[in-house]
Amino acid sequence: IVTARIVATPVVPMDLPVASTSETVQVVFSVVLPQAGPVMVNGQGVPNDAELARLAKDELAKSPDLRAVISASGSVPHRTVIHTLDVLRAAGLKHIAFGTLLEDPAR
C-alpha cells in the first residue's frame, strides 16, 4: 500500500515551503500532468519517462530531502498518475504529495 499526502493550494498549484529561518528551504520537484501535451517538471516539458527519472535523480542528488508534488488535470487517467508516481519512486523519491485546487464555493 502506498500512501501520499494531498496538498490543497489556492488558484496556482504550488507547494511553497514554510521556514522559520532564512536558512531552511524545502526543495520541491513539481510534476504537472496536463490534459494535453507533455509532462511538465518545474515548468519545463519532459519528453519521456526516462528524462523524468533522470531529472528526479539529479535533483535528489542535490537535495536528499527532495519533495515531489504531482498535480494532474482531472481528465488525466488514474493509471497515468499512478505510473508517474511509480517513475518517481523508482528514481528514489520518497516524499511525494498530490496537488489539488480548492473547490470554488461559487460553483
Order of helices and strands: EEEEHEHE
Helicity, in percent?
25-40%
Profile the largest sheet: 6 strands, mixed
Radius of gyration equals 14 Å
The tally of helices reads 2
> Residue-averaged pLDDT, rounded?
82
Strand content: 25-35%
Strand order of the largest sheet: 1-6-5-2-3-4
Measured distance between first and last alpha carbons: 34 Å
Overall form: globular
Uncertain regions: pLDDT < 50 for 5+ in a row?
Answer: 8-12
Please identify the structural class as seen in this structure.
alpha/beta
| Count of β-strands | 6
Description:
This protein is α/β, with parallel strands linked by helices and 107 residues long. The chain has two helices and six strands. Helix 1 packs across helix 2. The N and C termini lie far apart (34 Å).
What topology emerges from the helices and strands here?
Elements: E1 5-9, E2 28-33, E3 39-41, E4 44-46, H1 49-62, E5 67-72, H2 78-90, E6 95-101
Parallel strand pairs: 1-6, 2-5, 5-6
Antiparallel strand pairs: 2-3, 3-4
Summary, kept brief:
The chain is α/β, with parallel strands linked by helices. The chain has helices spanning about 50-60, 80-90, and strands at about 5-10, 30-35, 40, 45, 65-70, 95-100.
Using brief descriptors, characterize the structure shown.
single chain, 107 residues, alpha/beta, six-stranded mixed β-sheet, 2 helices, 28% strand
